[in-house]
Amino acid sequence: MLLALLLALTMDPAASDSAITTTTTTTTPTTATTATTTTPAEPVTADTPQAVGLVLPTVLPKAEPLRALRFVWRDHPSLRGGRNFRLDFSVKVQEDARDPGDDPIDFPTWELHRLRAGVDGEIFRRLQFSVEREFSENLNNDPTRKSTKSQWKDVYAEWVATDWMQIRGGQFKIPYGLDQTSGETNLDFVYRSLGGDYISPGRDVGGEVHGRFFKRGLNYWAGGFRHDGQNSRSSRTVGNEEVTVGEAGFTVGGRVTALVLRRYGPTFLKGAELGGSYAQGNVSDEGFLPNGLRARTVVTQHTYFERMFVNGPRKRYGTDLEWVYGPAGARAEYMFVTDARDNQGLGDEDLSDIRGKAWYVEGAWVVTREKLERPIEPRKGGLGLGGFGAVMFSVRFDKLGFDSKQGQDPPFRNTRAETVFPSFDSVWTAGFTYRANRWVKIQGNAIHESLSDIERAPKAADTDIPIPKFWSYVLRFQFEI
């Protein structure tokens, strides 16, 4: 407006009148009719002032209105309000058909393994949140009892300050391990590795700071939590009371991953990501039940290493490697946990730590040649959208067991043994994954387990004979939106 005023002041009155007259004849219907009978204006001569007449619009442009809230369906049904509001709804359903080889009693073939619903959102591109709840999660070896894990899964809010610092609070997974921190519906196999289920902590309530550098070439997570995760604890019924055992107190955890060869390595190794994890909390012996960690088989969750009496620091260490190159990929992970046994001897003497060791190696190949991602994106959208779907074959070996250092006494299986009798489960898993489209996934696995301690192996229901080696088969149907 100030510029318009200065230009107007530089014009002589005649020029101003001419400009106003010209503007009027072109902006109103009445004047436009008159203008057709007037003579054309003479061209400007050298004596005419060089100022240019200012034409002001009669209607000023309006500000762009805010986008109305609208419903869209991309990967999930969503509500969107421009770029400043997003609300995604999701439902995940998994139905399993199982044939265990360790001969359990009254074990149902079909199981609704997972029925989960959730909401994820973002406000002003800074505040993110997630709420997810499980509606069907039973104990595999006792379908009449609900799992001791919370039916509420991810329940958190996160402030995105910068790429290198994001602050999260609520209930979510403690940053430890590759297998456990991978999404449940995007696994290469029906079940996680044994170490991912029984050494990795899982979800708990706490706070975390995480971020990334160098275009995701370096990532970190660090936080503090009320306990050491739902995978550590279970409940036992004592009289009419439910007692929680196995959990540590306040726990800190952290994880770092890096694409160590992205810049200087050969092309086929640029996608290799190396990771490391650590977590620590203290376990108290205030209760009267054994409170260490346990180990169970894959399908029927038969306990082959019982909880022992522990007291003191619980430390978890882990390292992992993930490699992807086109349709092929591999993963490997090593996990190690120690439970201190301060004053746990029969004479209140300190005993050597309980040691839990787990590791796995796996490989996968997408035979339909799509890039190995999690989840895999079928070519042309998959079945029903112009494509066939993606097919992947995978194989894994994993092992989990517990023991202790050799003491003066020979190894025993009791809960206060100076030298703990070792017990390990070695598992081969081979299977296929058919990703029909973004909503439907079918997986089939053949699982062979071999238990090292025959005394702790599952027993046949009719003969009471131990079964230390056996095959199990699982078929999973998954639907998600």
Largest sheet properties: 16 strands, antiparallel, barrel
Identify the CATH class of the largest domain: Mainly Beta
Global shape: globular
CATH-defined topology of the largest domain: Porin
Number of helices: 4
Strand content: over 45%
Explain what this protein looks like in three dimensions.
The chain is mainly beta and 481 residues long. It has helices spanning 2-9, 13-27, 29-35, 194-198, and strands spanning 70-73, 77-80, 85-99, 110-123, 127-134, 138-139, 142-146, 152-162, 165-173, 203-213, 218-225, 234-238, 241-245, 251-258, 273-283, 295-296, 303-305, 312-325, 328-341, 351-366, 390-404, 423-435, 440-451, 469-480. Strands 3-4-5-8-9-10-11-14-15-18-19-20-21-22-23-24 form a 16-stranded antiparallel β-barrel. The chain has a two-stranded antiparallel ribbon with strand order 6-7. Helix 2 (13-27) crosses helix 3. The longest helix is centred in the first third of the chain and has 15 residues, at 13-27. It starts with a helix and ends with a strand.
Looking at this protein, list some descriptive labels.
24 strands; Porin; disordered N terminus; globular; mainly beta; 16-stranded antiparallel β-barrel; 2 domains; 481 residues
How are the SSEs placed, and which strands pair?
Elements: H1 2-9, H2 13-27, H3 29-35, E1 70-73, E2 77-80, E3 85-99, E4 110-123, E5 127-134, E6 138-139, E7 142-146, E8 152-162, E9 165-173, H4 194-198, E10 203-213, E11 218-225, E12 234-238, E13 241-245, E14 251-258, E15 273-283, E16 295-296, E17 303-305, E18 312-325, E19 328-341, E20 351-366, E21 390-404, E22 423-435, E23 440-451, E24 469-480
Antiparallel strand pairs: 1-2, 2-3, 3-4, 3-24, 4-5, 5-8, 6-7, 8-9, 9-10, 10-11, 11-14, 12-13, 14-15, 15-18, 16-17, 18-19, 19-20, 20-21, 21-22, 22-23, 23-24
Helix pairs in contact: 2-3
